[in-house]
Design a protein that fits this description.
Elements lengths: L1 E5 L3 H11 L6 E6 L2 H11 L3 E4 L8 H7 L5 E6 L5 H6 L4 E4 L4 H16 L4 H5 L8 E6 L2 E6 L5 E5 L2 E5 L6 E2 L3 H7 L5 E3 L4 E4 L3 E6 L5 E5 L4 E4 L1 H11 L2
Parallel strand pairs: 1-2, 1-3, 3-4, 4-5
Antiparallel strand pairs: 6-7, 8-9, 8-12, 9-10, 11-12, 13-14, 14-15
Helix pairs in contact: 2-3
């Protein structure tokens, strides 16, 4: 695995680099001290894994992730424990408190290896695009459904799976949002943020939210906060 270290503290980066020497399958390909440097490094180096601090000058670790269309796997490294819940809401692999302990680092890297080792299934590799009127087979445990895509209001990351919202059902499927996005009609389905794809036909209300973002309420469904970047795209798409 190729790793990028993102932390405004040079000492913290040095300590983490030293700890990672105990794991020969991990190669540190670069370092960044703020979000702007990190974006450039991610684009240039295409790392598999980010070790990401949260509080940095010029933008937090969460701001960085929100600005990326597709993010590598993320392990947060921080001195503060109050962001743990939010970290897992953005699908972080783990949340390590400084000073990082080697046993916790080993456990986090094992999660990263398991994610990296998950192969794409043949139908994920070459699946054709779908229209909103297509019906898809959904299986979750012992339950099965045959549902029109037009009736699905929301796709949402849930751990290593994606949760589907239709009628009163919330099944989980072993697909990534990236894969689903390649198959769904972009005129109907919109990537609201890193965790959610919404069906535009199911929008009930839209309201301005913090930092020039939008909050969307789905009919008979949850509220979805649109990221800053996607809020700009949404306004451009929906404007005359």
């Amino acid at each position: 695995m190729n790793a990028l270290l993102i932390d405004d503290s040079r000492l913290a980066r040095t300590e983490l680099r030293h700890l990672l020497q105990a794991f020969p399958d991990v190669t540190v390909v670069g370092e960044a001290k703020n979000a702007a440097e990190a974006r450039a490094q991610i684009q240039a180096l295409r790392p598999d894994l980010l070790f990401l601090d949260i509080q940095m000058p010029g933008g937090s670790g969460f701001d960085l992730l929100e600005s990326l269309d597709v993010a590598p796997q993320v392990i947060f490294t921080t001195a503060y424990d109050e962001y743990a819940l939010r970290a897992f809401e953005v699908s972080a692999l783990d949340y390590l408190l400084k000073p990082v302990q080697e046993n916790r680092l080993a456990a986090a890297l094992e999660k990263a290896r398991n994610q990296t080792a998950m192969p794409a299934t043949p139908d994920e590799a070459a699946a054709p695009p779908l229209s909103a009127q297509d019906q898809v087979f959904v299986k979750d445990g012992e339950r099965c459904w045959f549902v029109r895509l037009a009736d699905i209001k929301l796709f949402e990351i849930n751990g290593s799976y994606t949760q589907i919202y239709f009628e009163e059902h919330r099944p989980l499927i072993p697909r990534t949002l990236q894969h689903l996005e390649t198959r769904l009609d972009p005129k109907v389905f919109f990537r609201a943020n890193r965790q959610q794809i919404i069906n535009l036909k199911w929008i009930d209300t839209i309201e301005p939210w913090f930092s020039n973002t939008l909050k969307i309420k789905l009919k008979q469904g949850p509220e979805v906060e649109v990221s800053r970047k996607q809020s700009v795209l949404f306004r451009e798409m929906m404007s005359l």
